[in-house]
């Protein structure tokens, strides 16, 4: 399946007009509509990586401190 990206601005509430698509009458297509822009892209210049990922902080189980695990310290300082 090929994907085509088209960006446009709605000129009327609730109506989307797409022209110049590479399809023909009778072709079956699937349409996914995404609102362009979000908080991260609108504030890109002022946002750190941590701020962008803040909602994921603490979402995964952290490994124990690797420095206390003998398996990971094998050969260290040799």
Description of the structure:
- The protein is mainly α and 78 residues long.
- It is 17% helix and 0% strand.
- It contains 3 helices and no strands.
- It has helices at 39-42, 49-53, 70-73.
- The model has no long low-confidence stretch (mean pLDDT 78).
Which stretches are poorly predicted, pLDDT < 50 over at least 5 residues? none
Strand portion: under 5%
Tell me the distance between the termini: 54 Å
Shape: elongated
Largest sheet features = none
Figure out the total of helices: 3
Estimated structural class: mainly alpha
Radius of gyration: 24 Å
Tell me roughly what share of residues is in helical segments: 10-25%
Sum up the structure in keywords.
78 residues, single chain, mainly alpha
Set out the fold topology.
Blueprint: H1 39-42, H2 49-53, H3 70-73
Entry summary:
With 78 residues, this protein is mainly α. It is built from 3 helices and no strands.
């Amino acid at each position: 399946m090929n994907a085509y990206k088209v960006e446009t601005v709605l000129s009327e509430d609730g109506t989307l007009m797409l022209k110049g698509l590479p399809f023909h009458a009778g072709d079956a297509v699937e349409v996914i509509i995404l609102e362009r822009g979000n908080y991260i892209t609108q504030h890109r210049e002022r946002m750190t990586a941590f701020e962008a990922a803040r909602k994921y902080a603490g979402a995964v189980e952290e490994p124990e401190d690797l420095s206390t695990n003998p398996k990971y310290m094998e050969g260290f300082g040799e």
